[in-house]
TrEMBL record:
It comes from the Eukaryota. SUPFAM superfamilies: Cysteine proteinases. It comes from Mytilus edulis. This is Centrosomal protein of 76 kDa. Residues 10-67 form the CEP76 N-terminal domain. Its main location: cytoplasm.
Amino acid sequence: MSVPPEKIAELKQIIHGQLSQIGMQSRIRDVMSEVITEDYSNGQVSEQEIMQKLKERGLVDDLMSNLQFQNQGDGQSLRRPATHFLDQDDKVTNLPVKRANIDPSRRYLYFNIKNGKAFLEHIENSDPMPGQVSSYFTFHIHFRGQRFKSRPVPCACEPDVDEGFLLEVHKESSGEAGKMVDESGMLSICDKLHIALIKTDVTGETTLVSSHFLEWRPVLTAKTGRFQTSIELKGTGDESKMAAGVIDIQLELFPKPVKIIGQEVLTAQLSMERNRQSEKERLFLVYAKQWWKEYLQIRPANQERLVKIFAQDENAITRPVCSFVKPLRAGRLLDSARHAARFVSLMHHKKQESVGGGNKLEQWTTVHGFLCRNRGDCEDHAILLCSLLLGFGLDAYVCIGTKSKGSVHAWVMTITVDGLVTFWESLNGHRYIHEPIDPDMPPMDKMHRPKYPYKTIGCVFNHQSFYGNNQPSEHVDVSHFELGNESRWKPMSQDAVLSVCGLGASPSWPTLPPLCSSTLDPTLVSNDLEQQLRVLLFEHRRDLGLTTVWDDQLSYLLTPALAAYELERVTGITAGNEEFQDSMKQCVPDGHTFKGYPIQFSHRNARRAFATCLRSPVCEEIVNCRGDHVRLAVRVKIYPYPESACATWIMFACKYKSVL
C-alpha cells in the first residue's frame, strides 16, 4: 500500500518525538553500548545487528504502540494529497484528533463549508501536478470568542473545502450561564460569524482574500433545524466591491430547537437592529460634523492636521476610529505589557498598496483579519498593541501623526497616573519617554534631542475617548499631553463616543477575538532550521574551495547569548553577559580569535535568512573565514509567541588561530 507524502512526514515527526523522550534515549544508549562491547572485536558493527538488538529489547514494539495518527482508519486524510500545498508550519506539536463531545445541556451551532466555486482568479491552478507546490487557502472562523482554522486547501477555481466547525451559542445572563439558550434568546444574539479567507503563496506571503460577516440566524427559521445556502465572498480593499468567489455552506443547531421562529419575526428583528444602528451612526455623524466645525473655528490651521475621526476597514465600511480599539486580555499567553509590545512587533509589517501605485491604500484591517494574515500596516499594529495595553490596565491611546520624513504613521501612547508619557512603537517594540521641549529655548544638540522618530501628532484616541490636538504647534517634541486641558486638546463627548463604540452599542461591528497560543514546537523548529543553515553554510564554503569543521561545543555556548538578546528586546534589561564572556574565554584557546554575528528574524525561512546574513560584512567574514584551526558554529533559538508570531535568533560564529 502506498503512503501519501503527508502521512510520511507525520510519521517521521511522531517517531522523532518518541525518540526524543529521555527514557527512550537512555534505553537506546544502553543497547548501543552493549552491542559495541560485545561485537566490536569484529572491527565494525552492522546496522542489522543494532536493529536486531533493539527488537529483542522491545524498543521497536514500544515505539509502535505509542504512535498515534490523525483520522486513523477512517481514510479521510487520504482524500487530498498534501503535496499540492506548502505548509509553512509543518513542525508543530502533534495532538491526537478527538471527536467533539457535545454537552446536551448546551446549544451548539454547526457551521459547515462544503465547497467553493467561481474563484476565477485561480482558474489556472485547478489541476496541480502531484508533488507540485502551489498556493493554498485557509478559512479562519470567529464567533463569540471562539476561533477555528480549517486545514489548508489548494487554491483552485473550485476548492474542495468540506470543513465543519462546532460553535457554542452562549447564554450570557449572570446566574444562567449553564442554562441552554432558548429560541428567543438566540434571536436576540446579533453577533455575526466572521469568515476570513487567507491565501498563502509558495513563498509564505499571506493575503486577506475576503472578510465576510455571516448572519447566522436564518437557521432559526428552518423547519428541519438545518439551513443551506451559498454566500458570495467579496474581495478586500480596492476589490471590496468585486466577488472573490462563492462558498456553499450549511448551518445546523444542536439540539434541534423545539420552536421554529417565523420568517417575518426574523425579518422584523433584523430590520429593527439595522434601524437602531443606522440611527446611532447618523446621530454620531451629526455630532462629529459639529465637533469638527468648532475645532476649525479655534484655529483655521487645524484643517491641515491629521485629525482622523473615521476610517475604512477591509470591506470599505466607514467606522469611527474608536470602534477599532477594545481592551483585549491575552490570558496566560502574554505576561506583561512589554511582552505584548514584543509580540505585536513580530507581526509582519506590510503597507497596503493600491492598484496602479500612488499613495498607499486607506485600510484599517479588523483585528481578526490582521491576526489571521499575520501582517498589516502600522495602524493595524498600533490598534492591536493599544488594545492589549488597555487589557493590561494601562491608560493607552492610538496616536495619528507623521514621522520625521512626513509619512503618515500610527503609534501608541500610555500616560501614567503621575503624568509620565511613554510612546510605544508597535512596529519594533521600542519605547520612548516623552518630555516636552520649550520652543523658546535654544536648539538642542544631537545627544539631547528626542530619540523617537515622530514629527507631528494630530489626534489620540482609544475605545472611549477621542482628542484633537489643539496646541499652537502640532510638533510632537513641543506638545504637552495633559488630555484634560481643553485649551491643548479638544475632546469629543465620551457619551457620544460610547453611543456607537461602547460595549454592545454597535452589534454590526466585530468584537475582538481572543489570541490563540502558538502551535510551534520551539525545540523541533530550532533544530530543523539550524540543520538547514549548516547545510547552506557548508555548501557555500565548498563552492569557495573551503573545508568546514564544526565545533558543537561552541555552538551550544552561543545559546545564553541568544537568550540574553531576546530578554533585552522584551524587557530592555541586559543579563548574563559576564557568564557568556567567561564561557567564551574558557572555550577559545590562547592565541585564537573569536568572532560572532547575531541577528533576529520574524520568519523561519533558512535561505532568506542566510542570504540576508551574507549581506553583512561581519557575517560574510565569519562564513568565509580562512586560516589555521578554523572552527565554525551556528546556533538557532526560536521563541514562539501567540498566533503564528515568532522571534528567530541566529548566531554565526568562528574561532581560528591568529597568525599575527
